[in-house]
Amino acid sequence: MALGPRLDLRQSQSLVMTPQLQQAIRLLALSNLELEMFIGETLEANPLLELGEVRRDDAPEGEVEPLVREAGADSGDGEAALDLDESALDRDRDTGDEWSAASSGSGEEGPGIDERGATDGPTLAEHLHAQVGAAAGDGREEFVARAIIDQLDEAGYLTGTLAELADALGVPLAEAERAMAVVQSLDPTGVGARTLAECLALQAREADRYDPCMARLIDNLDLVARGDVARLKRMCEVDDEDFADMLAELRAYDPRPGLRFGGGGEAAVVPDILLRPAGGGWDIALNEATLPRLIVNRTYYLQLRQGGGKAAEAWLKEQLGEANWLLKALDQRARTILKVAAEIVKRQEGFFRRGVAELRPLTLRAVAEAIDLHESTVSRVTSNKYLACPRGTFELKYFFTSGVASSDGEGGASAEAVKAAIRALIAAEHPKAILSDDTLVDLLKDKGFDLARRTVAKYREALGIGSSVQRRRQKKLAGVG
């Protein structure tokens, strides 16, 4: 058989990720705060874009048209949703001159949820530095003490070892120990400790309760955690009444004294979506407080275009096209997020009205099929985005939970609802009748949850709740029952 070259024509299909499509995918996955940072960078790169004033609705107060009158009602035209797995974004974009969150929301200002963060009080380091000058004996001791303060973590514990710090400062260990004593004498009591036992011992000394019995109790915190009451009483040489007093005193101490000051807490979560009751339904809107309004300055465009030459005109045309496309992409992003949020509210309406016990199993695919979007698009929408409602602020991923079978065979229940039921049952158990996992299985079946014992144990452990034996020891330590 002879071999020779030949030409063949073949047809094939492939998805081309254009730069605009890649940018749109990135925009959809960003949270509102991340989007604000992206817009700031874009404003620096494109001279035709600028920030506009936040737009207010023309409707009188109290007459704002809710976006969703009924739970789950569509939040906008289906064609406006941004399904990034279609090729619609590959086409040229032609849009108006402005974009803002108000174009896709209710027009009301969002509540100041982001203002509920930490207070403006001093940090732990600032609080300690303000005291150390008066407590130190001389300038050298003050210098070492300030160095120790700078090595404390947010809870007030020393990171690293004192020997390493003394070596780094070039001072004798004994001098570092004296400076450490100065730090440990500051308010709040317990800062500067290297272990939990040392932190509690400092507070016991301050309360004049650090006798030999309390010292033995603090030195054996592992036995306290295990609930070995009989062994602890023998070691401390006390009776039941004295031992109960010692435990009560120990529980009154703060194991993390530094956290009462600023700088130790996490930043407050800023919601991307706001949900409010509106009549018999819901009002869903994007949080306008974190979404700046963009406008295209066409007057500036015309001024730059005059007398700039062909090269300048081509560059301006390119910048105008990018600006118009960005406005369109941002508007589509807003509509897509609201469309997904509306479907979530529709399917989880029981949770929003009655609590976690009504949370239903939900998957990304179910939402995607209901609103005619691709599953990956819904996944991007629900990533790193939070919804604020009267029950609190929740990540959108929270509403997508696995399901468990119901005892009546009709549908299923959310794993979160099962966890809530387990938590409620254990919280209500009698100290003298601790519920075993087998008993929990029977009680849950009465509530409509058909679960195996190992599943109940898994959910209980996920909640951080100990076994029946551990809970019985804890209640015994607490003097209950």
Structure description:
The chain has helices spanning 19-29, 32-45, 124-135, 139-149, 162-169, 173-184, 196-206, 212-219, 221-226, 229-236, 240-252, 298-305, 309-347, 349-354, 364-370, 375-381, 415-427, 437-446, 453-462, 468-477, and strands at 49-52, 98-99, 273-278, 281-286, 293-296, 386-389, 392-395, 403-405, 412-414. It has 3 domains: 19-113 and 270-343, no CATH class; 124-212 and 249-260, Orthogonal Bundle (Arc Repressor Mutant, subunit A), CATH 1.10.10; 402-477, Orthogonal Bundle (Arc Repressor Mutant, subunit A). Helices cover 47% and strands 7% of the residues. The model is unreliable at 55-119 (pLDDT under 50). The chain has 20 helices and 9 strands. β8 and β9 (412-414) form a beta hairpin. The protein has a 4-stranded mixed β-sheet with strand order 4-3-6-7, with helices on one face. Strands 1-5-2 form a 3-stranded antiparallel β-sheet, covered by helices on one side. It has a two-stranded antiparallel ribbon with strand order 8-9. The protein is extended. It is of the alpha+beta class and 481 residues long.
